[in-house]
Amino acid sequence: MAKKAYSLRNGAAARAKPSPKGVATIRTPLTQDPHAVRDTREKVLEVAIGREVRAFRKKLGITVADLAAATDISLGMLSKIENGITSPSLTTLQALSRALGVPVTAFFRRFEEERSAVFVRAGEGLDVERRGTRAGHQYNLLGHIGSNTSGVVVEPYLITLTEDSDVFPTFQHEGMEFLYMLEGEVVYRHGSNLYPMKPGDSLFFDADAPHGPEVLTILPMRYLSIICYPQGSAG
């Protein structure tokens, strides 16, 4: 029997359309292309500066013409700077920093900034104790990057519940959470809804609602829990 297709919602605009195999597909396109590759010239200093100038200008909500009037730099020159075609002088950078309200060093951020990555071999994740941890509940942190360019903190956990597991607590915290079942079966609560989950099932939800395993149907049980929240807030 084909699985029932559920509606997926992206705000109020997205609608899900069942595929022939019963898998829901989103009809409203998402804004980010997961396969997109940034310009390979990003490490070129001129390109990095241009990206930052454009980003700061758009953040202020001003046009290229507005910025040109505020800096006495021609429209043509500003276009070349934003597109990474020319290298602006220090005097030009100072004029741009005053008009955009940022330090000159801010224009070099993308060029100099290191991108972090965490590689964890099988079985080498960090065992951590989270609020509400009980006997038999193993939280294995698979990686953590604090301050980063995205403004979002992501905590990926491999959670294992064994025959010795105590009653599981209910959690409620800021951010979003994604679960993916690997082994065992559970009835998982989110708010007032209950979701029977088997290996291969997933659940994505607003973590501000009370959530947690309601019934441990088949043990041992393992699932991935990926928690995302804004930097500077408690996850």
Please describe what this structure looks like.
- The two termini are 39 Å apart.
- Strand 1 and strand 2 form a beta hairpin.
- Strands 3, 4, 5, 6, 7, 8 and 9 form a seven-stranded antiparallel β-sheet that branches.
- With 235 residues, the chain is α+β, with helices and mostly antiparallel strands.
- Residues 1-16 have low confidence and may be disordered.
- It contains five helices and nine strands, in the order E-E-H-H-H-H-H-E-E-E-E-E-E-E.
Low-confidence stretches: 1-16
Share in β-strands = 25-35%
User: How would you state the average pLDDT, rounded?
Assistant: 78
Number of strands: 9
Give the helix/strand class: alpha+beta
Sheet bearing the most strands, described?
A: 7 strands, antiparallel
Using the alpha-carbon principal axes, give the shape: elongated
- What string, H for helix and E for strand, traces the elements in order? EEHHHHHEEEEEEE
**Quaternary status of these chains?**
single chain
Radius of gyration: 24 Å
SSE blueprint:
Elements: E1 16-18, E2 24-26, H1 45-60, H2 64-71, H3 75-82, H4 90-100, H5 109-112, E3 126-128, E4 137-141, E5 152-161, E6 176-190, E7 193-197, E8 202-206, E9 211-230
Antiparallel strand pairs: 1-2, 3-4, 4-5, 5-9, 6-7, 6-8, 6-9
